[in-house]
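Homework help board

Subject: predicted structure for assignment chain

Our instructor gave us this sequence and asked us to write out the predicted structure in token form, then describe one feature. I got the tokens but I'm not sure how to describe them. Can anyone check?
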Amino acid sequence: MSDTVTRNIRIIVKPRFVAEQSDPGAGHYLFAYHITIRNEGTDTVQLLSRHWVITNGEGHVEEVRGPGVVGYQPVLAPGEEFQYTSGCPLGTPVGTMHGEFNMIVSDSQQRFDARIEPFRLAVPTALN
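My token output:
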């Protein structure tokens, strides 16, 4: 799990292994992660883009960038939150993800990156 606050934007990540869509014998492991983005500040903000850094258990790094999240660029007024679930395939039973969401403050048009601290992707039996 990851719980990070940047400029009053809290990002909570809860990952899980999706066994029913994984094939360990073929080196295919699917992980889902549920994200909550909560505006704990006094300014309205909009999520513009995402940047993920995904590292597998062998140290291979892949970066993913794109507009919005799951087809949305949510606008969050003070006290509002946006939740979504997405997935990440890995070729190893463990890995990590971290990144940031590029945000813009509606009134000032000031941009900033809301950080997402690293979180672990792991098959439950892989770390015993």
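Reply (TA_rk): Your tokens look well-formed. For the description, you could write something like this. DSSP finds no helices and nine strands in the chain. That's the kind of observation they're looking for.
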